[in-house]
Amino acid sequence: MKKSFKILTTAAALTVLVLTSSVSAQPKAPGKPQADCIFPRDISSFSSPNDHTVYLRVGASNYYKLDLIGPCHNLGFAQGVELKTSTAAVAICSPLDAELIVRLSGAAPDLCPVQGISKLTPAEVALLGKNKP
After folding, report:
1. Is pLDDT larger for residue 90 or for residue 20?
2. Is the pLDDT of residue 106 over 90?
3. Which of 45, 48, 109, 115 has a 20 to 30 Å separation from 70 between CA atoms?
């Protein structure tokens, strides 16, 4: 009985090893490139046309649109916003990584979950008009 268990364990370990090596040998699936990730420390300004949308200026010339899961009622009174990573990641590359923190004067900050992040093209930035951060 012990011998057959050892053989099965070895066979299972070899199967896992083969599957793992074949997965890692495959090229990575196309994903979001690192350049499209947001480093929270680089956010320089923001604007919000409504309580579901926030535009961020990141660095000198990158603009992002955040779509919030629900209304974030105090965006109109915000003194500033921050993105908090919900994981140990340094950069935010997915809405699953992010939560918007809305800083208010004299009040506790609001936390608003993010459902979508998209980098804006130069044409989309031009269309923002007065909503450009």
Report:
1. 90
2. no
3. 45
Both tokens of 28, joined, read 């990575």
pLDDT averaged over the chain?
77
Residue 28 has pLDDT above 50, yes or no: no
* 102 half-sphere exposure, CB direction, 13 A CA radius: 22
Domain boundaries, the chain: 34-131
Q: Can you tell me the distance from the alpha carbon of 66 to that of 95, in angstroms, rounded to the nearest whole number?
A: 8
Q: For residues 71 and 102, what is the distance between their CA atoms, to the nearest angstrom?
A: 12
The set of long-range contacts for 91-99, using a CB threshold of 8 Å and a minimum separation of 24, is: 91/34, 91/37, 91/38, 91/39, 92/37, 92/38, 92/39, 92/40, 92/117, 93/32, 93/34, 93/36, 93/37, 93/38, 94/32, 95/66, 95/67, 98/38, 98/66
- For 25, the enclosing helix (H) or strand (E) is helix 2-25
Tokens, residue 31: 């994903």
Say if CB 75 and CB 48 are below 8 A apart: yes
The pTM score is 0.70
